[in-house]
Specification:
Aspartate Aminotransferase, domain 2; seven-stranded mixed beta sheet; binds pyridoxal-5'-phosphate; PyrdxlP-dep_Trfase; EC 1.4.4.2; Glycine dehydrogenase (decarboxylating); alpha/beta; 30 helices; oxidoreductase; PyrdxlP-dep_Trfase_major
Length: about 950
């Protein structure tokens, strides 16, 4: 056919690793006649989808990009003065090209394996140091999801830290409206009453307070006395603040705030219709062990050299499960790194200059508006002015619109204007011309305009302390310096651009370049989340099309793209279930059944949604123990709200009883939440919305190709059957307010969460089409079975389905090895670094195991390279087992080996340097050298240091310098 001349399906073969010939060889190796038969063996026929997905045919890269460009052109890029937590910013080009557009950064995984993550850990430590410094607080974490959810996390942190018995959390009326709505949603499940008021009228009895500094509409208050009063009544003071303003404003920590939160967006991250951006949190030292999210800390490696790693890992929901006070897992690492590097790039003087420029331009705008006859409500301000425009309001808005300018309309008679670093003098003239025109005057841009003598920050709250004092923020002078710094950090790390990342449950597949290209188009990047809907037609269409495709793929009826991580999706899905039960008068239904093997975010999300968790056992095959499920259903009776299961299971198996399990729950009046993190094994093959589930979240940052970014961003949409659709998270209107008919509030600050990365998943689906998506799923299953079969005689495969096959991942059981010779899954994981690999998932869902998920994107050569490494490691283990080598001093226990270790003049080990560094001949060609040896986690937790150590710590006498800084 003529259409065959069009390369419409070429992308499929680029996304999927093994060629047809390789697939045939792999099928032969595992003893399956063909792919179709393998799938029949793996997927229970009761859920197998008949017929193809009803999606458009695959498109070529060029065709899909052209289509998307046309769609993007329906977004209108206006000059934005809306503010409200989102501002124009210049992404420094050196950061744009070398971080945001660099696969070395965006294809990395969360730095759980610190030895291969030192580059991004250092970048995150810069970010933490920057946030703590600007906030004037002791410690900052490595990012949260956005300002609204960071405020909600501050509320729960305050609850834990407060001595007050009150259930009330006071939030200032000056907070951004979307923050207040997110707070209310979060409070609803936690028996917290959010009281919104004007703090100037005094505080109620409360356990915590949230202030906004500067106010959403511009004011700047001196909060010292209020903070003292709050502390006197046992309340914790949290403040939502703005990093750029803090260059000029007294730091919250200096006036007594306990917690500071906010968004780092305006530090070089595009608005992107609301996200993704890094939310931040800093707090006093006394809160550190309860702080949500990940925290990078300084420790040392086995050689005593400084080494970074995630600190206090026991804080993560994985350990606390239903006792967790936060469910955050995937955060906003890539965006936090960009923001931290923005500070490195500009340095303290540069950041201060930007802040002053904004502040003085705002002052100039204010005096000019007064000169035109406008009444300006703001007396103290940083970058935002509130104007009493009265009867001229509509005329101003219309004149602005004709000049492609967006202002923030506040009720019928006020307008707010927020400036940012991209605003030029010319822009100010254009803005003043609009205001003049609206009242029938003219603005003379050519006149000599004097700079105002002062900006609008009152002297009582001006910052006296220096900012960004650590040398890391002052050492970059030129772009050459910056380029080399970024390259040097990236070179320390293993990301997907160097090796497969076979992390079970994480689906580290190709993030194709064509998928990434649209995210930096201005039509997507420069849209304010609260821009008038008339300007965002492209986004609306993109969201509609993507939602429709996800409904078709999952078999559900409606989708919300708002949740900005998988865990946030879980939370939103459980709120939908809760809303549904409440609407049916079933308020007592508040128990969530969760299998023992579930990901830690499941029970944590259930807890945050106000549900009690009851654990269901797994049977010896790793499946839900149906008898135990029946017993638990009977036990909880009419309190059953939901069952939360992961499918295929976290054990890597399609359990055959899934439809019966769903029926049992429905018969008892419960709803089924199916965790869709493993959707990569089902796209095109099975639809959870059709085989019994009521709601699922998807991880677009797994199955649908959004890169993991070193630990975020993510998108965790929820898909629901129609009866739950009314309970999807509310979409705030252009003023940031809740629609009157909303049943459930928003779970994220921006109406569509991390909207600017949706083009990635859209492109993936468009380029793959129905046939490509199905082929991807089938190949993911083939690849996992190929690894399982080839490794099964070396390492027991813990769980398999009835036909002895696994789904899209498999668990290698290392416990018997540990029992016989002491070599652990961690030793193997670290030894894999010497072989140039990122380790598989360690100890999830079963302690002492390794879970391998190759994904469809890895080709046969890479699979074989991994298998060869694992087989070679098994031989190394055998030498320990049979006593040929020492049980402690061997290549496994000492792994990974740095160049420094191997080049030491003295060599005291029984094995050779060659055996350590080049266990396979192929490694001589291309060798990854880890920058640090095995990291000592316990040392770092005992001596917690979570900001950049003094520079000497990185110099030659490294260990010692670190020792003194760490214990200081
Ligand atoms: C099974 C499962 N559920 C939920 C999640 C949480 O997703 P996220 O990290 O995006 O919050 C994960 C993440 O790894 C997962 O593997």
């Amino acid at each position: 056919m003529l259409r065959d001349l069009d390369p419409h399906s070429d992308f499929i073969g680029r996304h999927i690793g093994p060629s047809q010939a390789d697939q045939a060889a792999m099928l032969a190796a595992i003893g399956a006649p063909d792919l179709h038969s393998l799938i029949q063996e793996v997927v229970p026929s009761s859920i197998l989808k008949r017929g193809a997905l009803n999606l458009p045919a695959s498109r070529s890269e060029a065709g899909a990009l052209a289509d998307l460009k046309q769609l993007a052109s329906r977004n209108q890029v206006f000059r934005n003065y809306i503010g409200q937590g989102y501002y124009g910013t210049h992404v420094p080009n050196v950061i744009l090209r070398n971080i945001l557009e660099s696969p070395a950064w965006y294809t990395a995984y969360t730095p759980y394996q610190p030895e291969i993550s030192q580059g991004r850990l250092e970048a995150l430590l810069n970010y933490q140091t920057m946030v703590a410094d600007l906030a004037g607080l002791d410690i900052a974490n490595a990012s949260l999801l956005d300002e609204g959810t960071a405020a909600a996390e501050a509320m729960t942190l305050a609850r834990r830290g407060s001595r007050s018995k009150s259930k009330v959390f006071f939030a200032s009326v000056h907070c951004h409206p979307q923050t207040l709505e997110v707070l209310r949603t979060r409070a609803s499940g936690l028996d917290i009453e959010v009281q919104v008021g004007d703090e100037a009228q005094g505080l109620p009895d409360c356990f915590g307070v949230l202030l906004q500094y500067p106010h959403s509409l511009g004011g700047v208050s001196d909060y010292r006395a209020l903070t003292e009063a709050a502390h006197a009544q046992g309340a914790i003071v949290a403040v939502a603040t703005d990093l750029l303003a803090l260059a000029l404003l007294a730091a919250p920590g200096e006036w007594g705030a306990d917690i500071a939160v906010g968004s780092a967006q305006r530090f070089g991250v595009p608005m992107g219709f609301g996200g993704p951006h890094a939310g931040f949190m800093a707090c006093k030292d006394s809160f550190k062990r309860n702080m949500p999210g990940r925290l990078v800390g300084v420790s040392k490696d086995s050689q005593g050299a400084p080494a970074l790693r995630l600190a206090l890992q026991t804080r993560e929901q994985h350990i606390r499960r239903e006792k967790a006070t936060s469910n955050i897992c995937t955060a906003q690492v890539l965006l936090a790194i960009m923001a931290g590097m923005y500070a490195v790039w500009h340095g303290p003087a540069g950041i201060k200059r930007i802040a002053e420029r904004v502040a003085y331009l705002t002052a100039f705008l204010r005096s000019s508006l007064l000169g035109l006859g406008y009444s300006v409500a703001s007396k103290d301000y940083f970058d935002t002015l509130l104007l009493d425009t009265g009867k001229h309001t509509q005329a101003v808005i219309q004149a602005a619109e004709s000049a492609s300018i967006n202002l923030r309309k506040v009720g019928a008679e006020q307008i707010a204007v927020s400036l940012d670093e991209t605003v030029t003098v010319e822009d100010i003239h254009a803005l003043l011309a609009v205001f003049a025109q609206a009242i029938g005057k003219t603005w003379d841009a050519s006149a000599q305009h004097a700079l105002p003598a002062e900006h609008g920050i009152p002297s009582s709250v001006q910052r006296q302390s220096a900012i960004l004092t650590h040398p890391v923020f002052s050492r970059i002078q030129s772009e050459t310096d910056m380029l080399r710094y970024l390259r040097g950090l990236a070179d320390k790390d293993l990301a997907l651009d160097r090796t497969m990342i076979p992390l079970g449950s994480c689906t580290m597949k190709l993030n194709a370049t064509a998928e990434m290209i649209p995210i930096t188009w201005p039509e997507f990047g420069q849209i304010h989340p609260f821009a008038p809907t008339a300007q965002t037609g492209g986004y609306t269409e993109l969201i509609d099309r993507l939602s429709a495709a996800l409904c078709e793929i999952t078999g559900y009826d409606s989708v919300s793209l708002q949740p900005n991580s998988g865990a946030q999706g879980e939370y939103a899905g459980l709120l939908a279930i809760r809303g549904y039960h409440h609407a049916n008068g079933q308020h007592q239904r508040n128990v969530c059944l969760i299998p023992a093997s579930a990901h830690g975010t499941n029970p944590a999300s259930a807890h945050l949604a106000g549900m009690d968790v009851v654990v269901v056992a797994s049977d010896e095959n790793g499946n839900v123990d149906v008898e135990d499920l029946k017993a638990k259903i009977a036990q909880v009776g009419d309190r059953l709200a939901a069952l939360m299961i992961t499918y295929p299971s976290t054990h890597g198996v399609f359990e055959t009883a899934v439809t019966d399990i769903c029926a049992l729950v429905h018969e008892a009046g419960g709803q089924v939440y199916l965790d869709g993190a493993n959707m990569n094994a089902m796209v095109g093959l099975a639809q959870p919305g059709k085989f019994g589930s009521d709601v699922s979240h998807l991880n677009l940052h797994k199955t649908f190709c959004i890169p993991h970014g070193g630990g975020g961003p993510g998108v965790g949409p929820i898909a629901v059957r129609s009866h739950l659709a009314p309970y999807l998270p509310a979409v705030l209107d252009a003023s940031g307010s809740l629609p009157a008919d909303a049943h459930v509030g928003p779970v994220a600050a921006a109406p569509y969460g991390s909207a600017s990365i949706l083009p990635i998943s859209y492109m993936y689906i468009a380029m793959m089409g129905a046939e490509g998506l199905l082929a991807a799923t089938e190949t993911a299953i083939l690849n996992a079975n190929y690894i399982a079969t080839r490794l099964s005689s070396y390492y027991p495969i813990l769980y398999a389905g009835p036909n002895g096959r696994v789904a899209h991942e498999c668990i290698l059981d290392i416990r018997p090895i540990k029992d016989t010779c002491g070599i652990s899954n961690e030793d193997i994981a670290k030894r894999l670094v010497d072989y140039g690999f990122h380790a598989p998932t360690m100890s999830f869902p079963v302690a002492g195991t390794l879970m391998v998920e190759p994904t469809e994107s890895e080709g046969l050569a890479e699979l074989d390279r991994f298998i060869d490494a694992m087989i070679a490691i098994r031989a190394e283990i055998a030498q320990v087992e049979n006593g040929e080598v020492d049980a402690q001093d061997n290549v496994l226990c000492n792994a990974p080996h740095t160049a420094q270790m191997l080049l030491a003049t003295e060599w005291h080990h029984d094995y050779t340097r060659e055996a350590a560094a080049y266990p396979l001949a192929s490694l001589r060609d291309s060798k990854y050298w880890p920058p640090v040896a095995r990291v000592d986690n316990a040392y770092g937790d005992r001596n917690l240091v979570c900001s950049c150590p003094p520079m000497e710590a990185y110099e030659s006498d490294a260990g010692q310098a670190l020792e003194s800084s760490a214990t200081a």
